[in-house]
Amino acid sequence: MHSIDTCRVRLQSLALALLLAACATTTAPTPTQGPVTIALTPLRERLRTVEVGVNGATGTFLFDSAGGVTMISPDVARRAGCTPAGRGVGFRMNGERLDTPLCQGLSLDIAGQHWTPRQIGVLDLSPYLAPGQTAPDGNLALDAFEGRVVTLDVAHNALIVETPESFAARIVGAVEVPMRLSRESQGASLSANVGVPGPDGLVWFELDSGNGGTVLVSKHLASAFHLDPAAQGPQHLELDIAPGVHLSTDRAFTPDLILDGNLGMPFLSHYVVTLDLAHERAWLKAAA
Predict the structure, then answer these.
(1) What does the alpha-carbon distance between residue 199 and residue 197 come to, in Å, rounded to a whole number?
(2) Nearest CA to 47 among 71, 65, 25?
(3) Which residues lie below 8 Å from residue 226, measured CB to CB, with a gap of 6+?
(4) pLDDT per residue over 54-113, tens digit each?
């Protein structure tokens, strides 16, 4: 009898432990109970910005889906209480190496929710802009939303962080396309590439909301897409990305890139893009 009672107590203790664990799981803080819609503001018509708080320091950030690593200006780093240290190393699509000091553990406050990238680079963006343009306070990249499902709807100036329910509804009628994630800076960066059919198989074009006015096909692939690799100016491009997903643009260029291609706003402004950043899946749907 004693041994039976002991077993009963142990079972009751186990049941209580499991119940407490379940309660802890269901009541743990989550970013939101529904999808988070982040408002994007047009910048010079073609680009988009977002308001971001960094440890209480607020600023206007460029939303750059191909940025890889979220960046803040030295002034924002100072106001956020960060003394930059270490080094992150990445490469721009033209092959230029980019070294930045880092801030670790900073929280981003966006649309009333908190997001914590693995690391944040510190960079003055003004040298990368045209003369006379005002530099943003930072650069918000996809790494801030690692592991989540996000939808970029440029036509409606919105970036949506989906729930499982909103995600399921979002992709009804959308076309799934191959997707690869790119990771530099020892795995801390995050950008998305979609597979585009080429004459010899898939090639990979980066989705780049920071590229306001062009579609880029790397020089080594230009002829395969009926473009002149030696041309300096814009060219006309007809590009079939997937059944029902077609791009027609007079703003195609053929620079020498370290990637296959880059789909900027001439493409993103016409399609709603949903990215499952946890499972490397992507869907495209024509913008309403």
Answers:
(1) 7
(2) 65
(3) 237, 238
(4) 998 999 999 999 999 999 999 999 999 999 999 999 999 999 999 999 999 899 999 999
Q: Are 216 and 255 in contact (CB under 8 A)?
A: yes
User: Could you tell me which of 268, 275, 282 has the C-alpha nearest to residue 176?
Assistant: 282
Residue position matching structure tokens 């003369």:
131
What's the distance, CA 227 to chain centroid? 28
**E strand or H helix that includes residue 13:** helix 2-27
pTM for the model: 0.86
**3-class DSSP state of 86:** strand
Q: What is the CA radius of gyration of the chain?
A: 22
The residues, ordered by sequence, that sit 6+ positions from 183 with a Cβ below 8 Å of its Cβ are: 189, 190
* Alpha-carbon distances, residue 205 vs 50, 82, 245 (angstroms): 24, 35, 14
